[in-house]
Design brief:
This protein is an alpha/beta fold. The protein has three domains: 2-50 and 65-111 and 258-324, FAD/NAD(P)-binding domain, CATH 3.50.50.60; 115-255, 3-Layer(bba) Sandwich (FAD/NAD(P)-binding domain), CATH 3.50.50.60; 336-394, no CATH class. It has helices at residues 11-23, 25-30, 60-63, 136-148, 168-182, 204-217, 305-324, 377-394; strands spanning 2-7, 33-39, 43-45, 64-66, 76-79, 82-86, 91-94, 99-101, 104-107, 112-113, 130-131, 152-158, 189-194, 219-222, 227-231, 236-239, 244-246, 249-253, 256-257, 290-292, 336-343, 346-352, 361-365, 368-372. The strands form eight sheets. It has a five-stranded parallel β-sheet. The chain has a five-stranded parallel β-sheet with strand order 11-18-12-13-14. A three-stranded antiparallel β-sheet has the order 6-7-8, with no helix packed on it. Helix 5 (168-182) links the parallel strand 12 and strand 13 (189-194).
Length: 430
């Protein structure tokens, strides 16, 4: 009997469960293989949709569906919380006291926000003039707050990296610019983006190439701003070096952490609770029959749904290799791509991996049709279409035509290589 246990049924857990169910279809039918998924939440949340919900583009019905309906019928789904993972005995304990054994476990518990870690954030004014949009409840409350907002100082603050979908806070700023413009009150609103990074984007190339977007939209940028505390009644966000940014409405992207039960496992996670993971094989460093995927890992790739899609193929193969006693493949190259909504019906697209930063060009083929690192209406439509791709292709674990798991160089405008250095004794150019 092969027992595969998946901890978490978000994007990563669901994708892996469905891919493995197809791979082991015969074993599941014969009873020689089991695939079990554990998650306490009965609702599956389309997290990219939370960006649009505060602006009225999406409703709650657009972003939630029953969790069990997204899983292959051959997969066993247990709705319960996980209280303990014990790698020494290859077991997991659930909230009701049950103990599950596994031959291979996949940690897909994602990331959670911890707003309480910023002093004052969850105090007076929380969900009134201080909000998040990384949870369904937060996005709903922010939608109502934006509808009431008639002018003043809007501040978007990233408290700490890493976060889920690193470009989402910047997208929020761009969409807010468009939202207030449509309402005819943009001249009564100042927008400030405060980030702990030294630029607006997580990638240096993007920061250099796309600074013009902030300038054109009149969005002020506060860099290297490490938030230390917030005073809701006074409307002040204060950094550790005592810089103060006043606000009338604060949109906070709080500290992200891994699942709480993981932190109790010795040598499994980093200080933020993310699993120490081999960046190429996705094997957890704690034990060979443990893997991690998606937001739960500490790999230096974006925490985003597209990354899960690119991780899934290689991880599926490596799970099979561990079960068969074969060596692992270094299959994941850090591939990520992301639509960056810039407002007013346009968006950018970036495609990169561990070694290659975002470059101009075309995607997914050399001729396009989507431009890279450039605003276009087509990219915006692609961003909106992704919701249908998510429910009907990505979650079921299907491969996308023309979009392989490893990043393609085709279509990208790579810088010209420098000329080779002259060999020994060669004459120098004059």
């Amino acid at each position: 009997m092969r027992q595969i246990l998946i901890l978490g049924a978000g994007t990563a857990g669901t994708v892996m469960a469905n891919r493995l169910a197809r791979r082991y279809r015969r074993g599941l039918a014969r009873g020689t293989t089991t695939i079990t998924v554990v998650d306490p939440d009965p609702v599956h949340l389309y997290q990219p949709g939370l960006l649009f919900l505060p602006f009225g583009r999406y409703t709650t019905e657009h972003v939630v569906r029953p969790r069990s309906a997204q899983l292959d019928p051959a997969v066993r789904y247990i709705q319960d919380r996980i209280t303990r993972l014990d790698p020494a005995t290859d077991t997991v304990m659930l909230g009701d006291g049950r103990v599950l054994s596994y031959d291979v476990a996949v940690i897909a518990t994602g990331a959670r926000i911890a707003p309480e870690e910023l002093e004052g954030l969850t105090g007076p004014g929380w969900r009134e003039r201080m909000h998040d949009f990384y949870t369904l409840e937060g996005a709903q409350a922010l939608r109502d707050a934006l509808a009431r907002f008639d002018g003043g100082r809007l501040v978007i603050n990233v408290v700490e990296m890493p976060i889920k979908c690193p470009v989402a806070p910047l997208e929020f700023a761009f969409l807010a610019d468009a939202y207030f413009t449509r309402r005819g009150i943009r001249d009564r609103v100042t927008i400030t983006y405060a980030t702990p990074l030294d630029g607006a984007f997580t990638k240096a190339t993007c920061s250099r190439e796309l600074q013009y977007l902030l300038d054109a939209k009149g969005i002020a940028l506060e860099t290297e701003f490490n938030a230390g505390r917030v005073d809701g009644p006074a409307g002040e966000l204060v950094s550790w070096d005592e810089r103060t940014v006043p606000f009338d409405l604060l949109v906070s992207v709080p500290t992200h952490r891994g699942a709480e039960f993981l932190a109790a496992v010795p040598d499994l996670t980093n200080d933020l609770g993310f699993v120490h993971t081999d960046p190429r094989t996705l094997q957890a460093r704690r034990k060979p029959n443990l893997f991690a995927v998606g937001d739960a890992t500490d790999v230096p790739a974006s925490k985003a749904g597209s990354v899960v899609h690119f991780q899934a193929e290689g991880l599926e193969e490596n799970i099979a290799r561990v079960l068969d006693g074969r060596p692992l493949e270094a299959a994941f190259d850090g591939h990520a791509n992301c639509f960056i909504e810039t407002g007013h019906g346009k968006a950018l697209l970036i495609d990169f991996n561990y070694e290659v930063e975002p470059l101009p060009g075309h995607f997914p083929f050399a001729w396009g049709p989507l431009p890279l690192l450039r605003e276009s209406r087509l990219n915006h439509l692609g961003k909106l279409a992704f919701r249908h791709v998510y429910w009907n292709a990505l979650l079921p674990g299907f491969d996308l035509p023309g979009v392989p798991s490893r990043m393609k160089r085709e279509g990208k405008a790579f810088p010209s290589a420098p000329p080779p250095l002259p060999g020994p004794g060669a004459p120098l150019a004059r």
